[in-house]
Amino acid sequence: MKKEDYKITIVGAGLSGLAAATVLENRGYAPVILEASNTIGGRLATDVVEGYQLDRGFQVMLTAYPKVSQYLDLKNLMLQELRSGAVIYDANGEQRIGDPLRDIGALWPTIVSNIGSFSDKFKVLKLNIDLKKKSIDAIFASEEKTTLEYLREKSFSEKIIDKFFRPFFMGIFLEPDLRTSSRMFEFVYKMFGKGKAVIPKDGIGAITKQMAEKLNRTDIRFNTAVKQVIDGKIILENGENLESHFTIVATEASDLIANLKNQQIQWKSCHTFYFEAEKRSLDIPVIGLISEKEALINNFFWHTSIATTSKGKGELLSVTVVKETDLNLEALKNRVEVELDKYCQIKKLRFLKHYEIKKGLPDISQLQYELLPTETRLTNTIFLAGDQLLNGSQNAALLSGERAALGLLETLEGGAITGQLTSEYL
Fold it and tell me: Which domains does the chain have, with CATH numbers?
């Protein structure tokens, strides 16, 4: 059978599915991607509302992620860099803290801030240096503990934990208690120190859009929800049966595969609100954090502080709520506006849109960075992909999709295909 005649199906058009399709295409195959929604991207998608680019949840990309430069043309994404650190708000006002090694403008504000003691600031610098030297393999081989336990063992004060580490990493980990694995903390911290936090000029959805546009032989079918995946066949929600010689499930598989029904992934969620304002409160592209314990808001960002292709008439503000709440949508929106006024003096906002991101990040333990292609194989014809297999990151999504495709190729072509991609595959 010719390579293009094999029926290879990928379920899900997010980062993992697109990475898998890239590897398969470059090996000569012509896969089909089945996507339940009407667009690509999964968690990386951007809508346009009243001329504004609204990412489906505030997200950045870290350029230091190893897989990012392999799969993306970073120059053509027109990446817009955010400044290091954050502006932190509480009942006493605002203070900026950042990494002077990356942003000299953050040096003096960081020195004079009372976010933590001088000893805390020295330990932050030392942590930066130590993690730059520590390999990714060493990070994921380290003993797992919670991030909170890790920071306390490093002798950081409770003040800097509560005023900086907790609110900053709450927005990254999507949980307020710093219970996420210390492996993830070290990995993300290392990536922040090694590279840049960026947003494409056309929004976060430009990442998956670029990947899809590079595919020449892959057929992407939208609004095609899958009900069940079995060896040799895919059953769609509309009752249609599709033949599939090999299938990569690049989304949560527990609802699709019978013997995984009791292995549902737990997910961390958040709310993101978008508002229009006449003017912005921060001139530089930096994240704002509210560190007060009773506040629901975690972070906000002025998207019009960076270059975008938006054509809205004012300033665009996103606000993220991570903490769980029983408030209905209208009450939560009102609470957000009250807190923005109370802590940040941000007023006169016009509501644009709300997103509830129910599956923001997988809530998993025993985090890993790597997996072998053979470890993605569930049966002789079904393979799994997705960041839930490794750790909650864009890098893990790309890597797992790649490994699933390589596992499929090993099964289909025989022999072992190296996990270290060369130009033959990518």
Answer: 3-43+205-265+371-413 (3.50.50.60), 52-199+268-362 (3.90.660.50)
